[in-house]
Amino acid sequence: MNFVMKAAMGGGPPDVGKMLGGEEKEEDPDAAKKEEERQEALRQQEDERKEKYAKMEAERENMRQGIRDKYGIKKREVAEAEAAAAMEEASEGSLTRAKKAVPAGCGDDDEEEESIMDTVMKYLPGPLQDMLKK
C-alpha cells in the first residue's frame, strides 16, 4: 500500500533511479576478459562462415566446369576476352570496322558548291536567275 501511495504521489518506485541510470553499475572484474572471449568467438564464427561459403563456391565451380566440359561451353571470362579481341581486329566489309578518312575530292568543298549553283542557274529562266543572284 505504501508503494502505491508513493507512486500516486509522484515518488515513484524505489528502483526507478536504477532503471534511469541514476546509480552507477558495479563493474565486473572479469568484464574485459568476457568481452575479449566474445570477440574471439565472433571472429571464429566469421572464419567458419567464410570457409563454408568458399567450400560451397568451389563445389559449384566444379559442377559448372563439368557442365562446360560436357557441352563444350567456354568459360565466361575466356569468351568475353575472345569477343573483345575479335572486336579490336579491323575486318574489311564489316559494319563495325574503323572509319577511313574521306578521300580528296569528296566532301564539302566550297568550289564544288559554287559550280553546282552555277549549273543550276544555267537551267533557270532569266527572271529567276536575277532573283536568286540578289
Task: Describe it.
With 134 residues, this protein is mainly alpha-helical. 66% of the residues lie in helices and 0% in strands. The protein is built from 6 helices and no strands.
End-to-end C-alpha gap = 114 Å
Which structural class should the secondary elements be placed in?
A: mainly alpha
Strand count, sense and closure of the main sheet? none
Uncertain stretches of 5 or more adjacent residues? none
Report the strand count: 0
Q: What percentage of residues falls in helices of 4 or more residues?
A: 55-70%
Mean pLDDT: 77
**Strand percent estimate:** under 5%
Order of helices and strands: HHHHHH
The Cα radius of gyration reads 44 Å
Principal-axes geometry comes out as: elongated
Count, helices: 6
